[in-house]
Amino acid sequence: MISQHKMVSVDMKEVFAVKMKRRRSAGQQRGGTLLGITIFVCIKKGQNKLKDRAIHLSNLSEDYCNIWFKYLKDILNGYFPKRPKFLKIIINPHSHKKEAKQVYYEQVAPLFKLADIKTDITITEHEGHAFSVLKECDIQAFDGVVCVGGDGTASEVAHGLLLRAQTDARRDIDSNFMPVRAPLPLGIIPAGSTNVLSFSVHGIKHPCTAAMHIIMGNLQAVDVCSFSSRHRLLRFGFSAMFGFGGTTLALAEKYRWMPSNQRKEFAVIKALTNLKPEDCELSFLPTENAHMADQKGKRNEDERNTIEQCNEDKWQTMQTHFLNISVMAIPCLCSMAPRGLAPNTRLDNGSMSLIAVQNSSRADFIKHLKRYGNRQNQFDFPFVETYTVQEVKIRSKIDCGWTDMESEENADFHSRHQSVISPKGSCPWNVDGDLMEGTSEVHIKIHPQLITMYGRNIEEFDDHTVKCSCLNLPLEGEVELFKLIDTLMILSNFPHQFVILYYLSSSKTLQSIT
Ligand SMILES: Nc1ncnc2c1ncn2[C@@H]1O[C@H](COP(=O)(O)OP(=O)(O)OP(=O)(O)O)[C@@H](O)[C@H]1O
Predict the structure, then answer these.
(1) In this predicted complex, what is the ipTM?
(2) pTM of the predicted model, to two decimals?
(3) What is the 3-state secondary structure (H, E, C) of 368-428?
(4) Taking CA 202 as the corner, what is the angle to CA 196 and CA 204, rounded to the nearest 5 degrees?
(5) Which atom of ligand 1 approaches the CA of 149 most closely?
(6) What's the pLDDT at 309?
(7) Domains annotated on the chain, with CATH
(8) Which end of the chain is flanked by fewer CB atoms within 10 Å, N or C?
(9) Which ligand 1 atom minimizes the distance to the CA of 93?
């Protein structure tokens, strides 16, 4: 019935499911009147969004439809080896406003069912649960692992996958080791509050897009960092912040009793009012030596010693007071920073961005923060320095102490992931939105393309109408910024209890405080 003018063609690369279409009465499970076949395709909407679309092909002949159905099915089963058939799903029911289960069952599971993907689902019961599941499960049975949650969950799952790979390959992770790649691709369905990882890999926070990347088997290699202290691996991750970024997260965790968004805004305000520089020794190995470092594993002892010596000479050291130090292996896109917290790095370029913010006035620091949300260069300040690096060592002058008060439950997860539970001082690190406390000395190293994720490299992310989600301020407004600075100056003269009361008694946004 379709005229030549309306003829459309569909590339089989875009097709992910085919079904017989039947008319059934309410409650009828099987049989029904045959109407034809329906093919399901993945379509691109806008710059980064993916969606499913159904195309109905009408034909009343059972035989004819069967032939087409079988033919299309054979193509789908035989020609796309990267598309997963069996997935391990890990859902954190506590992410953000506890919507992860709903996101999965309402938006993602129906698409997986359509694509005939089988799943094995774990709903996590506590922090570290995903890690222990990945440690024990029959990993070879799956084609991929998918986590539903925020950055903390995604990072825990990535860390679990990578540690499992090292254990299976019998690597001694506490020496200066060359890690093996993760055994399976990782999919991230965003259901957290910031979703930096998902934003960076998909260019958008959109569960359906994430699901379509998984179904279509779109794969993207991603660089990973290892974090170690005193030659002991603490964890794998993608980004870390020390100073303001770490303190803000520690405060947000402390005020967990507040509603999710409110506590994060409050933590930012409180960290800004108490802004204090950390006295640190920062050493880093710039990227120009990368190719030599990468080859380390392939050379003999003498060559390796020469390279180590050469790299030793190239290390640069700064000993000063820092307001914040960020080390990022991925661009860390989020609604607050649409170009990324580290716009100069790529998902798979084998290097990290080091952003060192030295001591400055609070007003200047806020100006620097504000620029993450607009088109101005956030690094164009005399107190901000950026480098492209392979390795970073940070030693804080505060002695955080090393105690081992560890509960039996999760002891294994915590002993790696959060090494110290009762620090004497406070040296909080923000690693992928998770708190890593009590480590006064951290060595961060890049491992190029150590993990594969479902998604596509996002080179450009164009959204100028963005708002700063943690301060709730329209970032284009200079007026709000100066009001904010004034307010913070005033608030910082009062005790913290007053600041908390003042914040809680005001309406939700910082604007209303100002
Ligand atoms: N059942 C659970 N109860 C409490 N915490 C959990 C549970 N399952 C997982 N967790 C932990 O919750 C932490 C935070 O979760 P997640 O990062 O997904 O959410 P979020 O903080 O809201 O999002 P984002 O990191 O994007 O801001 C993770 O580190 C994870 O280990």
Answers:
(1) 0.95
(2) 0.82
(3) HHHHHHCCCCCCCCCCEEEEEEEEEEEEECCCCCCCCCCCCCCHHHHHHHCCCCCCCCCCC
(4) 70
(5) 18
(6) 59
(7) 4-79 (2.30.29), 81-217 (3.40.50.10330), 225-243+277-467 (2.60.200.40)
(8) N
(9) 1
